[in-house]
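2024-03-11 09:14:02 INFO worker-7 job=invfold-0412 stage=load source=structure_tokens
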């Protein structure tokens, strides 16, 4: 095998039905944890897609607060944090507020309702906090 050959695999550690497979994989391979990254590169990408600085800061702040709540939840934990790909535009954005509201309503909201299926009011509160402008 050549020294520069790498095999990269991905695994959703939040899927607890894979616990035995996860253990077997961890014994045989090196693991790198990836976490949501609302960093300068993400900010710059969002700006190239038409998001203004205030909208980028709003999304970043709201998503980091939500992820802190998710990570602190004993039933979920850090592996359930919502990644930056949810709020990384693929196409130019002409109305940042409308775009973010659509992402929250159609992608993040349903995920939160799944996370907190037994306390839908908690999901509703988190969704409302994401959509609050101030």
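2024-03-11 09:14:09 INFO worker-7 stage=emit residues=134
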């Amino acid at each position: 095998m050549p020294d520069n050959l790498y095999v990269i695999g991905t695994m959703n550690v939040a899927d607890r039905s894979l616990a035995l497979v996860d253990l077997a994989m961890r014994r045989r391979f090196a693991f790198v944890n990836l976490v949501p990254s609302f960093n300068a590169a993400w900010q710059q990408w969002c700006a190239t897609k038409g998001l203004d600085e205030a909208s980028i800061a709003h999304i970043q702040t709201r998503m980091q607060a939500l992820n802190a709540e998710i990570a602190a939840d004993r039933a979920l934990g850090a592996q359930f944090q919502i990644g930056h790909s949810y709020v990384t535009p693929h196409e130019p954005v002409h109305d940042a507020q409308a775009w973010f509201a659509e992402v929250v309503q159609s992608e993040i909201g349903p995920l939160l309702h799944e996370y907190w299926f037994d306390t839908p009011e908690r999901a509703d509160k988190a969704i409302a906090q994401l959509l609050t402008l101030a």
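2024-03-11 09:14:09 INFO worker-7 stage=report msg="The mean pLDDT is 91."
2024-03-11 09:14:10 INFO worker-7 job finished
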